[in-house]
Design brief:
Structural class: alpha/beta
Strand order of the largest sheet: 3-4-7-10-11-12-14-16
Shape: globular
Radius of gyration: 22 Å
Largest sheet: 8 strands, parallel, barrel
Number of strands: 23
Distance between the termini: 10 Å
Length: about 450
């Protein structure tokens, strides 16, 4: 994308925010294009959670490498520096930020109990083991530290449980047998007895459909979720607000998800899917994909599919994106952590919200090349500010919004968090735009902004 066009979008934002007119001209070299943003404010088309923005923390140890690059450092749940003030303040700034604790190795984690006589061992790299690492252990002392930290930071915590416990495996990766919930129940009981607040318990990571490394049938997974719901209800008996039961945390497979949702009508409260629509992190065309509007159009299908499944079922469960890093296998340095990535990220936020997705969890808060914070310094990357900007501007009610005139521009409209005023990020992938002041009113029904945009050719 040309620098002149980025500058034009900045002017677009400033003029729409401060001027009292709905149209204006930007002078620059190139062709003047008339564009229109159309917003129907008669009724909202979807509604997000107040805490729509979410970020993940993963288990990967420093030895985790992709394409010859090791980008995780000390960003694991087991070794992250919880005393770092930048980390604390970065989470506090959202008030609240949802934190989803999980990832590939969560199905390789056991939890220490008070009765354990064996030392709680960390992950050890082992190519013959599932996911390339031996079974790791979460010490209760570390669980205490994490909960104290998240309470101080004001975070809403979702914890991903090991869904492979007690199963046997077939050569094709199928995990057979019922989930052994005893270790997970022990952790849940310990958590409640210590007075820690968990927003939700999520069962399993990428084990649905064809799975990643392993897979579980929809029927068996549904039975396991029903068991988790029983445990949560039993342990939380007497509490007015109970943790959410969340699953399956994987890539959408319409047949599998349909069966799964049909068999969990009363136990499942959140259906989570993962989004990595940019392909592998070593793709040399990754930047071009991010800036290619026609490529990004294909990202709508997973949201559309899950929305259709939920609408056609008897469930009251809602949709979340439980993990989304854009490019899988830790992303790509100087791309996934660059300014350009915000065009993908903010487009995803707007797109997800328009399909009634309640929460969107970015992979990661810190760790890999797609962290919102730098793994070594904790300094925020550009996408951190995109997330914070969204959190502060965009309200829960999503409005029907269309942009006409330039295929490279996206527009998404929400009522603002402070009033009924519509707030629009009109972007080539994410720059926020707010309607002029005199158009902010509770009687707002439908507005059209005619934007005369000069597309830079240099």
């Amino acid at each position: 994308m040309k620098l002149g066009f980025v500058f034009m979008l900045l002017l677009l934002y400033l003029w729409l925010h401060w001027m009292n007119e709905g149209s204006f001209f930007v002078s620059s070299k190139g062709t003047v294009i008339s564009c229109t943003v159309s917003i129907n404010g008669t009724d909202s088309i979807a509604k997000t959670d107040y805490s729509f923005i979410c970020a993940t923390l993963d288990w990967w140890p420093p030895e985790k490498c992709d394409y010859g690059t090791c980008s995780w450092g000390r960003a694991s749940l087991l070794n992250l520096d919880l005393a770092n003030p930048i980390l604390l303040n970065a989470i506090k700034a959202f008030s609240p930020l949802k934190i989803r604790m999980g990832g590939t190795l969560q199905d390789n984690v056991i939890y220490e109990t008070k009765d354990d006589k064996v030392k709680c061992a960390p992950f050890v790299q082992n190519g013959s083991e599932l996911f390339g690492f031996s079974t790791g252990c979460l010490p209760l002392s570390r669980w205490d530290q994490l909960n104290v930290f998240f309470k101080k930071a004001g975070a809403m915590v979702v914890f991903g449980l090991n869904a492979l416990s007690g199963r046997t495996f077939r050569p094709d990766g199928s995990a057979i047998g019922a989930w052994n919930s005893s270790n997970a129940e022990s952790l849940i009981r310990y958590t409640v007895n210590k007075g820690y607040t968990i927003h939700g318990w999520e069962l399993g990571n990428e084990l649905c459909g064809s799975g990643i490394g392993a897979k579980i049938s929809a029927e068996q997974y549904a039975a396991d979720v029903n068991s988790l719901k029983s445990i949560v209800d039993n342990v939380s008996r007497g509490f007015k607000v109970k943790p959410l039961v969340i699953a399956p945390g994987g890539f959408i497979d319409t047949d599998w998800f349909t069966q799964f949702v049909e068999k969990t009508p009363k136990s499942l409260q959140v259906v989570t899917q993962h989004i990595y629509n940019l392909g592998p992190g070593n793709d040399n065309q990754l930047m071009n994909k991010i800036l290619d509007a026609s490529y990004e159009d294909g990202g709508r299908q997973p949201f559309r599919d899950l929305q259709a499944i939920l609408k056609s079922s008897s469930t009251s469960a809602v949709a979340w994106v439980g993990e989304a890093g854009g490019a899988y296998n830790s992303g790509r340095n100087h791309v996934s952590n660059s300014f350009a990535n915000s065009f993908w990220y903010m487009d995803q936020l707007g797109m997800a919200a328009s399909y009634d997705t309640k929460t969107y969890c970015r992979q990661t808060l810190i760790g890999g090349n797609y962290g919102l914070l730098d793994t070594a310094t904790f300094v925020p990357h550009p996408d951190y500010y995109s997330a914070l900007l969204w959190h502060r501007l965009m309200g829960r009610k999503v409005l029907s919004t269309s942009f006409y005139g330039m295929k490279s521009v996206r527009a998404y409209g929400h009522c603002s968090k402070q009033s009924l005023q519509p707030t629009i990020p009109a972007t080539s992938r994410g720059t926020p735009t707010v309607l002029p002041p005199q158009q902010h009113s509770s009687s707002f029904h439908q507005q059209q902004l005619v934007l005369h945009v000069s597309e830079a050719l240099q």
